[in-house]
Design a protein that fits this description.
With 87 residues, this protein is mostly beta strands. The protein is 6% helix and 47% strand. It has 1 helix and 6 strands, in the order βββββαβ. The protein is globular.
C-alpha cells in the first residue's frame, strides 16, 4: 500500500529574522518545492503549512510559510520532517 503523505525533507535551520527556514530536500528534484503550495508536519496531513515563497540558496531550499513571521516562530520548526501529499 502506498503512503498518502511522503516525507520529503527536514527543516534544519532558520534564515533571517522574518521566519524563513532552511530545508534540506530529500528529493531528486529540489525544485519540486517551487510548484507545491502546502507541506505538512505530520504523515497524516493534519498539520498543514502553506508556502508563501520558496527559493534555492547554496543547495538548500529557503521557505517562507504563511503565519510564520518571526525568527522565534521559525525556530520552533527546526528539526521537523516535512511531508507532501502524494497527488
Amino acid at each position: 500500500m502506498l503512503k498518502t503523505y511522503i516525507d520529503t525533507g527536514k527543516i534544519v535551520n532558520t534564515h533571517g529574522l522574518r521566519g524563513d527556514v532552511k530545508l534540506e530536500a530529500w528529493t531528486d528534484d529540489p525544485e519540486l518545492f517551487f510548484d507545491i503550495d502546502t507541506l505538512y508536519l505530520d504523515a497524516e496531513g493534519k498539520k498543514p503549512l502553506n508556502i508563501q515563497n520558496a527559493r534555492m540558496q547554496k543547495g538548500m531550499i529557503l521557505i517562507k510559510f504563511e503565519g510564520i513571521d518571526t525568527i522565534e516562530e521559525g525556530e520552533k520548526l527546526r528539526n521537523k520532517i516535512v511531508y507532501i501529499h502524494r497527488d
